[in-house]
Amino acid sequence: MAATSDGHRRFYVTTPIYYVNDKPHIGHTYTTTAADAVARYHRMRGDEVLFVTGTDEHAQKVVRAAQAAGLDPQAFADRVMTSFLDAWDRMHISYDRFIRTTEAEHKQVVAEVFRRLLESGDIYKDHYAGWYCVPCETYFAEDALNEGSLCPDCGREVEQLTEEAYFFKASAYGNELMREIEANPERIQPDSRRNEVLSFIRQGLQDTCVTRANQGWGVPVPGDQEHVIYVWFDALINYLSAAGWSLDEEQFARTWPPSLQLMGKDILTRFHGSLWLAMLMALGIELPQMLFAHGWWVTAGGEKISKSRGNVIDPWAEVELLVEESGCTTDVAVDAVRYYMFREVTFGLDGAFSSDGLLARFNADLANDLGNLLNRTLPLVERFLDGTIDQPGPGAGELPEQIARAVARTETSFQTLDMRGMLEGIWELLAAANKFVDERAPWDLFKQGKKVELLAVLYDVVDAIRVTALMIAPVMPVVAEEIWRQIGLEAMAVPMSWDDCQPGKLPAGAQVRRGRPIFPRIDLERVRQRAAAKLQQEKTEEEEAQKMISYDDFMKVDLRIAKVLDADPVEGADKLLKLVVDAGEEEPRQVVAGLAQEFSPRELIGETVVLVANLEPATIRGVQSQGMILAAGGEKPLALIVPDRDVEPGERVR
Ligand code: ME8
Questions:
Q1: Ligand 1 neighbour 347 (Cβ under 6 A)
Q2: Whose CA is nearest to atom 29 of ligand 1?
Q3: Where are the alpha helices (DSSP H) in 133-210?
Q4: pTM for the whole thing?
Q5: Max CA-CA distance within the chain?
Q6: Ligand 1 atom closest to Cα of 59?
Q7: What is the SS3 assignment for 633?
Q8: What angle do CA 389, 395, 396 make, to 5 degrees?
Q9: The architecture CATH gives domain 371-511
Q10: pLDDT at 391 over 90
Q11: Ligand 1, closest atom to CA 238?
Q12: pLDDT surpasses 70 at 2
């Protein structure tokens, strides 16, 4: 953390900036929520925080998606970025700066970086011939490709490109970078990821192509409008722009270097851990204090969750599920999803996201451990002490020690980003507090007239609840505030400050106010029954669909060979293509097919396919469709059905 001459501690935390190609999924939400929790923690400690997130808008895939949506790229980016703003707002993300790479100031900074590196000889002009994966926006060496010229990251076909281009001399910085990382292990965390970065650099950093032919989208190379700056080079510079580099030197000096840069493991080795750090070295700028790469959310089958694989988990759907099943408020459900992400999996490792797991944790950890402590303690204070702990008790047992332990663990966990360990520590305190209530039985103390002891016991429990609220606030800000309200500290205008994370600081006179339960229990049995019923219904529908038909019925289907003459996206529908096909008739016909996400129009033109020729015509998204193209695959088309040798259009298929 940058300590400055005025004695303030500053904390600059970043997330990657996300591609504006869709709304955020669970992976984006994970990185952003982690950054949010860290930012909130530092704000509570009184540090001056700059938390930056944003959108990466100059990707070629933005141009393609915009075309498919019938918009120009900027209008498309404007539209999609609002879905990020909206999602972050709903997920309680407290960013200080939302940066877009299409902002004029950022573009100015990118051009300035380029200009300086050109001047210093760190960028030079040459030719590039290579394999490029459009969805990943990345070039790959031939030997890195999967069999069949497929992208090693996403498995799609890559394209060969040869062009005049500018290169960044990353090769000049490999050795220095390696020494720097080895000397400062905290610069790249966790350790296993740092080792991956080091072995990548050890193989020799290659000079990186940092421009593309200018097709009207991107930051133009200063003085050479033929080229635009490569989207990754452009995007990484956002961290400098947000800190004011070359724009506001005073702000930059106060802010730089980043205390923590968070990201998923897929964008550490090639981009942040090598390219980004080498760029900074070339510019003579201090390196970030810590890059931390977290793991992936994977499906139960171990596959990474991502838009290009079509298996995304929408965090908002999970929030809605919780609201529906438990009846908690939407804000509480958001906090519960935040909690689940950090409690379920060690930050840094991969983990499987499951809605069942989320519901189970909601009941066990939130409704039972935390909710229960609150719901049983506050009525005791109301009944036995008229709702007020009017003077601090002396500390009646082991709880103060437990509190101090949980606080210490939380503080170290925020330094090492052991989010799971932190929550485990807090939950140990909750377990101890629940046990303490059982063992010290305030109801018996009341009956026995042991007033001093009763006050001391309840003081310690409410004090444990108070510190718990403070410690969970970075992860569950709304829940923390609600607990604060229920234990009467909001009404006393006591600020939620980390300095008060010590036992014995519950102020005298707090008036507890029991509210409705924050975490109403979920009837998991009912959830299971409904899931089973749904499964059964799907099975019945499938069986229904698979019922035998007669030979005559089948012969009613007129299947014909057809040749695709033309293909275009259907405006406003990202799954549909409008095909013009020759089915051996007088006139070609037009067919709407749901193939857009798996096939580009170019791939389809000239293809020989099978057409259901006697399907009733229909209008789909305002476009006339006369027939259907056959493809293998259930929910999404996996392969077209094509004849294995030349057949004339119009030939019958049976
Ligand atoms: O990479 N589990 O943007 P992006 C966990 N624009 N994290 C995941 C994930 C998953 N299944 N899927 C994605 C970009 N992520 C660039 C960044 S920064 C200068 C430019 C995380 O929209 C991923 O690891 O593809 C990364 O942190 C972020 O989402 C990538 O989002």
A1: no
A2: 28
A3: 174-183, 191-202
A4: 0.82
A5: 100
A6: 6
A7: coil
A8: 100
A9: Orthogonal Bundle (1.10)
A10: no
A11: 19
A12: no
